């Protein structure tokens, strides 16, 4: 599996959410609404989710192991830092 494209939109408002990303996998599958969040221990990604009937949020798309999560996170964070540099924010 290769991530063949990462598109990122920086969030200008103050708050914990810093960007929203979409990834393309092998030029044939897209996952939208992956969020870049500033947490207590630094930046992390949050996969797309929806609120269930019990008011809990559940991921609607997610990697099945930490190796793939780390790969996706690395690709998105690389693009995030590039976008910050282009915007003159880093």
Protein topology:
Blueprint (H helix, E strand, L loop, with lengths): L2 E8 L6 E9 L3 E11 L2 E5 L2 E3 L5 E3 L6 H21 L4
Antiparallel strand pairs: 1-2, 2-3, 3-4, 5-6
Q: For the record, what CATH class applies?
A: Alpha Beta
- The rough form would be described as globular
What is the CATH topology assignment?
Answer: Arylsulfatase, C-terminal domain
Class from secondary-structure proportions? alpha+beta
Number of strands: 6
Q: Tell me which CATH architecture applies here.
A: 2-Layer Sandwich
Regions with little confidence, pLDDT below 50 for 5+ residues = none
Proportion in β-strands: 35-45%
Strand order of the largest sheet: 1-2-3-4
What string gives the helices and strands in order?
EEEEEEH
Rg from alpha-carbon coordinates: 13 Å
The domain tally reads 1
- Residue share in helices? 10-25%
Count the DSSP helices. Answer: 1
Largest sheet: 4 strands, antiparallel
**Distance N to C terminus:** 30 Å
Mean pLDDT: 94
What is the name of the CATH superfamily? Stage V sporulation protein G
Function: Could be involved in septation.
Family: Belongs to the SpoVG family.
Pfam families: SpoVG
Protein name: Putative septation protein SpoVG
